[in-house]
Amino acid sequence: MVDLLLTLSACILISSTILPMVIQLMKESTVEKERYAATVLLYEKLHELLIENQLPVNQTIVKNDKQYEFIPSLDLKEVCIQFENRNQNKQKVCEFLE
Questions:
Q1: In this structure, are residues 94 and 78 in contact, taking their beta carbons and an 8 Å threshold?
Q2: In angstroms, rounded to a whole number, what is the distance separating the alpha carbons of residues 39 and 80?
Q3: Over the stretch 43-63, which tens digit does the pLDDT of each residue have?
Q4: How far is residue 34's CA from residue 24's CA, in Å, rounded to a whole number?
Q5: CA 25 vs CA 8, 28, 58: distances in Å
Q6: Helix (H, G, I), strand (E, B), or coil: what is residue 47?
Q7: Disulfide check for 59: which of 49, 70, 85, 94 has CB 3.0–4.6 Å away?
Q8: CA 45 vs CA 26, 52, 54, 72: distances in Å
């Protein structure tokens, strides 16, 4: 009986420390996947503008039922893409133009 209680205590202790870490890792993984998708979209848009020889302008892009704001800086040295993540927080990915 003591062995069973000791084993149960160890399982509860391990699960109470590991489970929150796993949940946090899953959240961070989701955030990184969203940032990666935004970065890919940013580079696709820049490539499209380069091929068409156009200047970047503010634009809203909808992809996979998600809205992205394509925002170039005033001096056209930097372009950003802004989006809301799952927690409704604004995220921004920027890249310098050369």
A1: yes
A2: 9
A3: 999 899 889 988 888 999 998
A4: 16
A5: 25, 5, 34
A6: helix
A7: 70
A8: 29, 11, 11, 11
Is the model's pLDDT at 19 over the cut of 80?
Answer: yes
pLDDT band at 1 (very low <50, low <70, confident <90, very high): confident
pTM for the model: 0.77
Q: Return the closest-CA partner of residue 42 out of 87, 10, 88, 34.
A: 34
Tokens representing 12? 């509860």
> Whole-angstrom Cα distance, residue 38 to residue 63?
10
Instruction: For the beta carbon of residue 59, count every other beta carbon within 10 angstroms.
Output: 12
Distance CA 85, CA 53 (A): 31
Give the E-state strand segments of 1-98 in sequence order. Answer: 59-63, 66-72, 78-84, 90-96
